[in-house]
Amino acid sequence: MQNLSQDIEEYIISKLNDEPVNYVSLRRKDLAEFFGCVPSQINYVLRSRFSPEHGYIIESRRGEHGYIKIVRISCITPQERAQHTEDIIGEAISMNEAHRLLENLVNRDFISQREHLLIEIALRHSNYLWQDEPLFRRKHLIADLLKRMLKGIMLMNEEEGGK
Asked: Quick one: 68 and 93 in the same domain?
């Protein structure tokens, strides 16, 4: 049996798929009433399943006529994918965040499962080599290595006619 969060996610995705544009505007209150839940449950789903890492941007306006606008990020070219990925990573990233990001990139078909595994191995090995570095420094090193590897993979896939 599916849980409520998954039901809400699937409903929002179906609404997005029904639209000719890459966004949908919904009211948090209406969604909560439709699913018989509190608005904080809707907030949880938006934060956990519709983040930039998952390929979405959320715009929100609160108040009487408030709404949430869910925009699907469209990255068509490998350069756009690489730039989007670099923007998500930022200047620093933890190993746990990097792991979640890589899983999301596989789910979005930005990288293959094999590429995911190779990057994970490189990150774990590098993190071991950097274990004496302060945590903030390690996060910067992880981000730099991750950005370089992903950019190289995405641009190489373009040259090979892959993803």
From this structure: no
Contacts of 100 (CB under 8 A, 6+ apart): 53
Give CA–CA dist 155/163, Å, rounded.
9
Number of domains composing the chain: 2
Structural domain span for residue 151: 78-159
Whole-model pTM: value is 0.69
- Burial code (b: 16+ CB inside 10 Å, e: under 16) for 90-121 equals eebbebebbbebbebbbebebbeeebbeebee
Per-residue pLDDT tens over the stretch 62-101: 766 678 899 888 777 888 888 888 988 999 999 999 998 9
CA distance 42 to 82: 30
Which of 57, 72, 87 lies at the terminal end of a domain, its last residue? Answer: 72
CA 34 to chain centre: 26
| DSSP helix, strand, coil percent of the chain (3-state; round to 5) | 65, 10, 25
Query: Tokens 């080599």 sit at which residue?
Result: 129
Cα–Cα distance list, 43 to 106, 114, 132 (Å): 25, 34, 39
